[in-house]
Amino acid sequence: MKIAFFELEKWEELSLKENLKGHDLFFSNDELNEKTIEIVKDFDIVSVFIYSKVNRNILSKFNNLKAIVTRSTGFDHIDMKEALKKEINVLNVPSYGENTVAEHTFALILALSRKIHKSYERTIRGDFSIDGLRGFDLKGKTLGIIGMGNIGRHVARMAKGFEMNVLAYDIKKDEKLEKKLNFKYVELKDLLKNSDIVTLHCPYNKHTHHLINKKTIRLMKKEAYIINTARGGNLDTEALVQALAKKNLGGAALDVLEEESLIKEEIQLLSKNFSKGNLKNLVENHLLLTFNNVIITPHNAFNSQEALQRILDTTLENIYDITKKNKLRNLVK
Ligand code: NAI
After folding, report:
1. How far apart are the CA of 14 and the centre of ligand 1, in A?
2. Atom of ligand 1 nearest to the CA of 151
3. Atom of ligand 1 nearest to the CA of 76
4. Ligand 1, atom 2: closest residue by C-alpha
5. Which of 17, 153, 165, 201 has the most CB atoms around its CB within 10 Å?
6. For the domain 98-303, what is the CATH superfamily, name and number?
7. Dist CA 294 CA 291 (whole Å)
8. Is the CB of 227 inside a 6 Å radius of any atom of ligand 1?
9. Residue 6 and residue 50: Cα distance in Å, rounded?
10. pLDDT on residue 260
11. Given this model, what pLDDT does residue 273 score?
12. Is the CB of 144 inside a 6 Å radius of any atom of ligand 1?
């Protein structure tokens, strides 16, 4: 089969070559986009990461695409409706980094609670004063987890290690888990009202778009912190900027941003497809960078050596399932 891989690193290419002998392979560290699609129009399988926007236009250019194998858990970068219509299977990596993303979430929480980012900035300048670096304990504080799935439950487990109280909001409840990890399911508004730190771990879709918005952010305690390692669109950036500017929030730590690909590649400003809507997000993201109680990491929560190896292993399993016409274990439905 003809299989194309985008957004790939060299070490991944070597491993894929070794494991997919006999197939016609194409590798690129670029994204799949309007330009690169031209090379792979006739391919059977395309594998991407999250910066390839597999939209309607891109899908319309493939002649016999059978499957999209995304090397991620989230699949909001793929037009699922259009893929379904065209009978293109979408396979993902449902669980590779639940502990990995949870560990990054705690790295962010601890960075905020102990002002690690500010301390580091100071000591590399040779300044060892501690004025303004007083933090707060996690022990006894309440952590509100939105989305108690694979990642959320690892965050809850870690929070218990810090002797925190844990509240959770999820559209599905697992009472066994609630008992086992000793947390409490509550409604979203109660979670927001009662948490000292709120962390997002739900998927991004039309129901979770701006789940935290001007109205819901107002319910949070004035000194509370918000952590987002899910997707930028779960959190209304304008609402966050306003809450921070008015000191209605203690701070934020974000691994994901709305329109994050734009702040990564500002050259896109010159593209004819650039819309004013994007510009608003870009300005808001720049504003976020100016607050000293905001920490931003560059969508890096998944990025541990172990997690990347697990992604590659599952991607290979997904490709075997397609090429050998097995049951598709990780088909996105
Ligand atoms: P999961 O599917 O195991 O868990 C998601 C949980 O959210 C489920 O329990 C689900 O019932 C719940 N949920 C769905 N809709 C909801 C709603 N409207 N309100 C409240 N809860 C809702 O997914 P997992 O593996 O825990 O990942 C969560 C998200 O984290 C992914 O969708 C992805 O966007 C993001 N992610 C980010 C990474 C990063 O590097 N920053 C890496 C991996 C995932």
Report:
1. 31
2. 26
3. 34
4. 149
5. 201
6. NAD(P)-binding Rossmann-like Domain (3.40.50.720)
7. 5
8. no
9. 10
10. 87
11. 60
12. no
- Map residue 31 onto helix, strand or coil: coil
Could you give the residue ranges of the DSSP H alpha helices within 31-187? 37-40, 56-61, 80-85, 98-113, 116-123, 150-161, 175-181
How high is the pLDDT of residue 266?
Answer: 67
The highest-level CATH class for domain 2-96+306-323 is alpha beta
Stretches where the chain sits below pLDDT 70 are 266-277
3-state secondary structure at position 264:
helix
| Dist CA 195 CA 143 (whole Å) | 5
Looking at residue 98, its pLDDT comes to 86
Q: Can you name the residues that pair with 228 across neighbouring β-strands?
A: 200, 254
15 token code pair: 């491993």
CATH 3.40.50.720 intervals, the chain? 2-96+306-323, 98-303
Mutation probe of ligand 1 site: the residue of 49, 76, 77, 151 with most atoms within 8 A of C-beta: 151
β-pair partners for 144: 167, 198
